[in-house]
Design a protein that fits this description.
The chain is α/β, with parallel strands linked by helices and 326 residues long. Helices cover 46% and strands 17% of the residues. This is LacI family transcriptional regulator.
């Protein structure tokens, strides 16, 4: 920096203001300094800059799942990571991906964030026993959540219309004359699983129909297993609403193995509208959840929070997409 200042004929403080993007430098001085920077090949020392600005320009994306789950065939995770990273990149920030699917990783992530390595935190896939939301709020670092937190903490969040979307799906089945409508619920320690099950039950209660429930874990294998259980428990069921599309794909496989036609014998509705939903046999009726836009909204909430602006939870719409399975 001293060499740049000497080459440009300005003070070291002026060089610092230019390379840090401050607006208190005239355009001609800025151009002179930047010419010297280019001629000398000067690269700012990031660690030193962080000490001065008290910023790292890094944001932690904390996913409370194991690596096997995050890097599985569930496209929700890759969609959220990609959309959040692109939104942060546009804001001049970088993403630090932290996986927290075990007690050991919880402690590691808490220590890393508490060490001042990031300017803010985004939480994804929170479970009711997850200690991180409460621990991170005590660290006084800006925190937002992808989805309503599964624990009672005051954290801004971007979520979808989970209960309302599930109600739309079940009403669609009722309107098409289905009477014995089962559900394959998601994990009940997650808000999305709880809310989609609540929406299913509310719609059936209004129609004076009983609930028929099996529980999966958002994987296609659990959807197939739950579908076989439902058929064994109630062979007369004529529809099933699944809490995500991967479980619906598993349910379609189990129904085909059992000799049941879709939608002739059993109508199937999923949730998420992943790309594969258009290519199942038959194509899957589902509830569209905009994971990419929800992730981008989460980033915008965090950036506003870091700037000290007031933020409120944002709920994204969920629309029914009707295809041939129902």
């Amino acid at each position: 920096m001293e060499a740049v200042a000497a080459r440009a004929g300005v003070s070291r403080a002026t060089v610092s203001r230019v390379v840090n993007g401050q607006a208190t430098v005239t355009p001609d001085i800025r151009e002179t300094v930047m010419r010297a920077v280019r001629e000398l090949g000067y690269v700012p020392n990031g660690a030193a800059r962080n000490l001065v600005t008290q910023r790292t320009n890094s944001i932690a994306l904390v996913v409370s799942e194991s690596p096997n789950r995050v890097f599985s065939d569930d496209p929700m995770f890759s969609t959220v990571i990609r959309a959040a990273s692109l939104e942060l990149e546009a804001a001049g920030r970088q993403t630090v991906l932290l996986l927290a699917g075990s007690p050991e990783s919880h402690a590691r992530v808490e220590n890393y964030i508490g060490g001042g390595h990031v300017d803010g935190v985004m939480l994804v896939s929170s479970h009711s026993a997850d200690p991180l939301p409460g621990a991170l709020t005590r660290l006084r670092v800006p925190v937002v959540s992808y989805g309503r937190p599964a624990v009672p903490v005051e954290i801004p969040y971007a979520d979808g219309e989970n209960a309302a979307g599930a109600e739309r799906a079940v009403r669609h089945l009722l309107e098409r004359g289905r009477r014995r409508i089962a559900t394959i619920a998601g994990p009940l320690d997650m808000v999305a699983g709880q809310d989609r099950l609540a929406g299913y039950r509310d719609a059936l209660r209004e129609a004076d129909r009983r609930s028929i429930v099996a529980v999966g874990d958002f994987t296609r294998e659990s959807g197939a297993t739950a579908m076989r259980q439902l058929l064994e428990d109630d062979p007369e069921l004529d529809a099933v609403f699944t809490a995500n599309d991967l479980m619906a794909i598993g349910a379609l496989y189990a129904l085909r193995q059992a000799g049941r036609s879709v939608p002739g014998d059993v109508a199937v509705v999923g949730y998420d509208d992943i790309e594969a939903a258009r290519y199942t046999d038959p194509p899957l009726t589902t509830v569209r959840a905009s994971h990419a836009e929800q992730a981008a909204t989460m980033v915008r909430l965090l950036l506003a929070l870091m700037e000290g602006r007031p933020v409120e939870p944002v709920i994204m719409p969920a629309d029914l997409v009707v295809r041939q399975s129902a």
